[in-house]
Specification:
780 residues; alpha+beta; Beta-galactosidase, Chain A, domain 5; nine-stranded antiparallel beta sheet; six-stranded mixed beta sheet; 40 strands
């Protein structure tokens, strides 16, 4: 996912890899599944994951930053860390996991032994600043824990996290004065003037507090913090490194050290001195999107005592509990990949609410949650596909909070619509579609309750009817988005039509026949993008003609498509695959075109100007989300054995237990959720349906422990490279002749068993009645 800003009005808001296999997770790993996670996976290449400490859906992501480059060079450092780097500039408390754009990197802390430097320095010039070299050999990277030796200082740094607290433990070398540097200037995706204003205070009890306001991806974002140390300071200096300060009537010279209790400005740095220490220094930091007072309250509530090892054990236990929802039997490497994928799928959305229930909404005002925990960090263009359906299946109580958070955000929206791409409560307008709609619809159809369904449906209809957003006005009038009025119009027409279908499913389940009929009709708008002459989805002009000239290989901004081309987007009709098969000329032609997609000879440099189109198999691009459902489409044309073969091809080439083991951005868990579902043997091609398309398992046995107390087990035998195809399937001991599974069959508990074989079974699942359902089949 790259940055595509889509405002609800016409003004758009601007805004060396480790290729060797990873060593086993280090000693002292947790006894449960947390010990089978390796957060290094995805930290190299284009995975954009971070290796640091966090807990499931936690507010804190405390992680090392190897670079925070300017916005022109920031893509590979979207999570602040690249495995190929050799120095660390500090440890900050907020990060996105796997995004294609970034921000955050708040409250950067660096332990220093010896002389204090106030600038990060040049990575190519050791000791030119406060950053330090490190070796991967010194790193310990586990779920909820990170440690590294900063070789230029001889400091052993350890990190762990609670839900709102980052915990640090620094062991300094004997005989050198110990310091902690706090830098409020750096930010991931940095550019001049990003920090609008900041404050820094040292209180009488030694607590350090502050806030900063940035004009980053979410303009005007404010984050506050509170920090305490386990040992008293011997001295301190607060600096304002800004050379020309003018803000709200205040003027000052800047660039002056102040040995006092407070500083305000745009370039604040604090240096805290502790003398020569005989024992490790512990630091705890709480954050708040609301206020310094709330940050202190979070610290008081969640950060009692000084016992780093106990907090580390609690973080591991939190991951053990979250990951225990699935037990798998698989070889060690496969287990590492599976549980790391499940771990990555449970990092977002993040808690964005203080202990007193306050959170910041998209109106920038402070609101209070009533009976739920407010979460934000919504990469909705990505996560509606598999990550949120996975949470609805595995953690329905969490899903309830997520839906309530979306509804609350809509109620605080100045435009009265659901989030598009939001974090810390604020909107970025990134990407396209109104994909909070299928997140809510899928949860409801899958049986998630505990939220006001009428409020949810009203929010969904409002989002699908807000004309200024992405030219929905013309879409509602013409049945498509015209390319002369709105960029990437073919993609928008197709994604709106699917979102409309998902809305209709929830309305239908609620007995709202009129709403269901309206949006079921709109779900057929995909046909306005279909060009039977070329055999591709295309964008039309306002007069109804297709835009010319047409190149099905053209991709990205300025084309008809969002982060894709005609080859990739022409399959995006998940709500009506049967209709798409008919439009393409029937099963045989549909399968042949799918084969052509996967078997095309494509030079990866073709997409050099579209960073997110990666993981190519022909035109298929597993590193970006529009392709994620495509391998399963063979099921819908009576050729499930080809789905099985393609899945093996994808699993073998796009995932690995290495730092560069993700073919593209993890996008807040979507790439990982695809892996989890596909390893289990089924996938939600059409969220808001109660069906999953069957593939083939990639683990010998998986027991899913459901929230209702039942267990659903998936097994496969013989499972090896010599037996890649499904010969037969049974559900609870009875033959299953169809290529889909229903939600109700999973939550009822039982066993799904795949008998694997060397050669494809071309008969199983080939009948029309055996295929997953699609809109045209039931009168949509």
């Amino acid at each position: 996912m790259t940055a595509r800003l889509h405002a609800p009005f016409s003004l758009l808001l601007a805004a060396a890899l480790g290729a060797a296999a990873l060593a086993p997770v280090a000693a002292h790993a947790a006894a449960g599944h947390a010990g089978e996670v390796d957060p290094r996976i995805g930290t190299g290449g284009d995975g954009h994951t971070f290796p640091g400490a966090t807990v499931p859906f936690g507010m804190i992501q405390l992680s090392p930053d190897t670079a925070m480059p300017d916005f022109k060079h920031a893509y590979k450092w979207a999570a602040g860390y690249q495995y190929g780097d050799s120095s660390i500039m500090g440890f900050s408390h907020t990060h996105f996991s796997g995004s294609g754009h970034s921000d955050l990197g708040d409250v950067l802390v660096m332990p220093i032994a010896g002389d204090v430097r106030l600038e990060p320095g040049d990575p190519a010039a050791p000791c030119s600043g406060y950053r330090s070299r490190f070796s991967h050999d010194s790193e310990v990277v586990q779920a909820g824990y990170y440690a590294v030796t900063l070789s230029d200082y001889g400091v052993r740094a350890e990190l762990t996290a609670g839900r709102r607290i980052g915990w640090h433990r620094y062991t300094f070398p004997a005989g050198k004065p110990a310091h902690v540097l706090l830098d409020l200037r750096p930010s991931i995706y940095d550019y001049p003037g990003k920090v609008l204003w900041a404050s820094l205070r040292v209180h009488a009890d030694g607590t350090v507090t502050g806030c900063r306001t940035t004009r980053g991806w979410a303009p005007g974002r404010e984050l506050c913090f509170a920090m305490r140390f386990s040992q008293p300071m011997t001295s301190r200096e607060l600096y304002n490194r800004e050379t020309d300060i003018t803000y709200k009537g205040f003027k000052g010279p800047g660039n002056q050290a102040e040995d006092r209790d407070a500083q305000d400005g745009r370039a604040l740095v604090g240096a805290f001195d502790f003398g020569q220490l005989k024992r490790p220094l512990e630091v705890k930091v709480a954050i708040s999107p609301v206020s310094e007072a709330n940050a202190v309250a979070n610290l008081d509530h969640d950060g009692t005592g000084w016992d780093f090892d106990a907090r580390r054990a609690e973080a591991a236990a939190a991951w053990d509990k979250a990951l225990a929802v699935i037990d798998v039997e698989a070889p060690k490497t496969a287990k590492t990949q599976f549980y790391t994928a499940l771990y990555h799928a449970m990092l977002s959305p993040t808690l964005s609410m203080d202990v007193n229930g306050e959170y910041r909404g998209p109106d920038h005002a402070v609101h209070r949650a009533d009976g739920f925990e407010f979460h934000s960090t919504w990469s909705l263009w990505d996560v509606y596909r598999a990550q949120q359906p996975l949470m609805a299946l595995l953690h329905p109580a969490r899903s309830t909070d997520f839906v309530r958070s979306l509804i609350a955000a809509r109620e605080a929206s100045p435009f009265g619509i659901l989030p598009v791409w939001a974090y810390q409560g604020l909107e970025t307008w990134c990407m396209i579609g109104y994909h909070a709609v299928p997140v809510i619809a899928d949860a409801y159809v899958k049986g998630v309750r505990g939220f006001d369904a009428d409020k949810a449906l009203a929010a969904m209809v409002a989002s699908a009817s807000y004309g200024p957003y992405g030219d929905l006005a013309d879409y509602m009038k013409l049945g498509y988005v015209p390319i002369d009025k709105e960029p990437e119009a073919a993609s928008k027409t197709l994604e709106y039509a699917y979102d409309d279908w998902s809305l209709a499913q929830m309305a239908k389940a609620m007995g709202k026949a009129g709403v269901a009929a309206t949006f079921t009709k709109r779900a057929g708008n995909w046909r306005h993008a279909w060009d039977p002459q070329t055999g591709f989805m295309r964008a039309r002009l306002s007069d109804g003609k297709f835009r010319e000239p047409f190149d099905p290989e053209a991709a990205g901004y300025g084309s008809d498509y969002t982060e894709g081309n005609a080859w990739q987007y022409s399959w995006y009709v998940p709500q009506d695959v049967a209709g798409l098969i008919g439009a393409m000329g029937g099963d045989t032609k549909f399968v042949a075109k799918l084969d052509a997609l996967f078997e095309a000879k494509v030079d990866p440099s073709h997409f050099k100007n579209v960073e997110d189109i990666t993981g190519l198999i022909g035109w298929y691009a597993h590193g970006n989300e529009p392709s994620h459902h495509i391998a399963y489409l063979y099921d819908y044309a009576g050729a499930p054995w080809k789905t099985q073969a393609r899945l093996k091809q994808i699993m073998d080439s796009q995932y690995a237990a290495r730092p560069d083991g993700l073919a593209g951005n993890d996008d807040l868990g979507q790439m990982s959720a695809w892996y989890v579902f596909s390893a289990l043997g089924f996938y939600p091609v059409t969220p808001a349906s109660d069906e999953y398309a069957l593939g083939r398992p990639f683990v010998a046995k998986a027991a899913i422990h459901l929230a209702n107390g039942r267990t659903f087990t998936v097994s496969a035998a013989p499972l090896d490279d010599a037996h890649p195809y499904v010969g037969a399937v049974t559900l609870n001991g009875k033959p299953l002749d169809r290529t889909y599974l229903r939600q109700g069959e999973i939550v009822a508990g039982g066993e799904l068993h795949f008998t694997m074989q060397a050669e494809p079974n071309r008969e199983w699942g080939s009948a029309v009645a055996a295929r997953p359902t699609a809109m045209s089949r039931y009168g949509g």
